[in-house]
Amino acid sequence: MTVRDVASRLRAEARSVNERRLLVLAGAQDAGFDAAGDALDAADIDPANATLVGHRDALRCEHVTPRNAGELLGTTRDAVVYDATEECRPNALGRVTGAVDGGGLLVLVTPPLDAWPDARDEFDDGLAVPPFGLEDVTGRFRERLVATLRAHRGVAIYDVDSETVVDDGLTRPAPRLASPETSPPAEHAFPEAAYEACLTEDQMTAVHAFESLSDPGSAVVAEADRGRGKSSAAGIAAACLAVEGLDVLVTAPSFRSVRELYARADDVCDRLEADYERPDRTRLDVADAGRIRFAKPPAAADLPDSPDVVLVDEAAALPVRLLGEFLDAPRVAFTTTVHGYEGAGRGFDVRFRDELAASEFDVTDVRLDDPIRYAAGDPVEVWAFRALLLDARPPVDPLVDDATPDTADYTVLDQATLAGDEHRLRETFGLLVAAHYRTEPDDLARILDAPNLSVRALCHDDHVVAVCLLAREGGLDAETREAMYTGSRVKGNMLPDVLTSQLRDPEAAAPVGQRVVRIATHHAVRSRGLGSALLEAVRAEFDDTDWLGVGYGATPDLLDFWAANDFSTLHLSTTRNDTSGEYSAIMLDPQSDAGAALAERHESWFADRVAGVLADALTDLDPDVARAALAACDATPNPGLSADSWRVVAGSAFGSAMYSVDPEPFRWLAVCALVRDDAPALADEADEAVRRERLFVLKLLQCRPWDDVADTLDYHSTGQAMRAFGDALQPLCEAWGGAAVEAERERHA
To answer: Which of 400, 401, 391 is nearest to 459 (CA)?
Structure first.
């Protein structure tokens, strides 16, 4: 049997049941491309409806590189050929799989399967971070990939070197019953044409749920796996709302994620014969009515131009903090992927759901289960979920409900253990996916193969309840450190890179550290100290390293958590993350003399420069983030001022002097008050002390106008805020001012 025979039969079977099939062409790359061309031709696939994803443009069809595989999101192809001989990138594999239409073929061009795990490609080169080399990277992820290809139904394997069929991939399915005809709900507010645009009963149900957005105070949550049409349903609803006259703001991690939403909105406007314009790809303006427009999440969270409705697509890919900001909109909808390479929705489900439920919105939930592009039970989807762990989840709640630090065992999950234990791997990866919006299939390969990464966990009754992903960083030679200092990027050494290239410390990359890349606790047992217990065990195991460190999107709660675990603030980034909208914090926990020296010099410098940064790049930083970051810094800045400066400060605290004549000593005292553990409280009442700390941040460090400060902190007037400012200075003057302050105080008395 030739490859043409295999492809023709696979395609015929796939079309008969509206499923996809997977064809593996294993062997030499050139022979693989020749076989792929023959396969597409024999399967009667129009080159205009096929895409080659790889580094070489070797077929007569559209070509994109693996790094640009995201261009296929929102598109549908009869066939996608993925060349995995030069680079097997898990994210790209997940993306291209979802683009293949029912009745279509996914074609993988691979090295010989027996030899593939030992081959090294461009993705592996990215895992070989200094001081490790390519020879240190393992092939466990590809071992997993090969095993799943050989085991799953609907996967044909053809050896292009020997021109032999290893597996024809045919499943010989029973005939399918015709799908029942869909019909709109008996009562509906959106036009009939909107429901005629729906492809499944599920999609009609979702569109009907979106009707509630016509009324202020309504919220909708639509959940589905990939390919179920949730974004299309949102697009149909967006068009109806815009025709009604509403301003609809759409947001997603990237515009490419919502291309299908806009395509469906165009279609519905055409069906409704609405007069509309498309000024650009992100805008749809309905004449004498409403509009649909797009903004990236951080900008959209500010609700620009006061939209009537906000549609948040792929909400599971956004941090909970950012999701909460959309609750200020009059109406809001969230569409979220339950499983997928973007990350599963457990963070949305477990954390944000409570916040949404506590809001004043009337929430409507809807779930879409029926696939749109292919039939339920599609073998390629089943394979992709297994191979890439797209459906990985933490243990179910009842298995871990009783877990505490005393009942949990510290476990070293080395790469060989994870690769050989599917149960442990799925729980570990599922917990990482549930806790972090950026966990993706590339991370699965990194966990299994990257020489700089290691995994540690706490297990209760043999189930993972807390997990920590660590990256070895630093320990770089003098030549590499110099290259880093002069602007070269050194892979896999995030903390040393920031401290060296941005903060200009030429020796920062010499000490060896372990950076906490991810840490996650099972949602059912949070707030029991398991995360802290895991960090303590990690600290004990790695007591021969110079430091433990972490970099993350800073929030007050996270800063408090890391500070409680003895990590100290060294740096706040001066730009926001494009997706999360958060500024990042870098913190260190020194383990050795070298680590302590590194931490001390950066803690001291952070205290010295933070006032200038807050008055400039970080003037919009949440004051509670600033307070927590300063409180977490282990520096001990000296509050001593000159006699002249103390007289100015004391005159403002006890008399009528104006701080604006010399703001610098006030700013330095604010830094000392917020950083030093021995600083006096700014007020007797704890709540008022916190408000005065915020006052110091907003006025002294971020230099905001008095009216803005008074309004933000709920003072009755600017005068009241000014008086609180003077009162807050008094305990600092009394504790640190000495004779100069006492003399000034007596004069005013």
So the answer is: 400
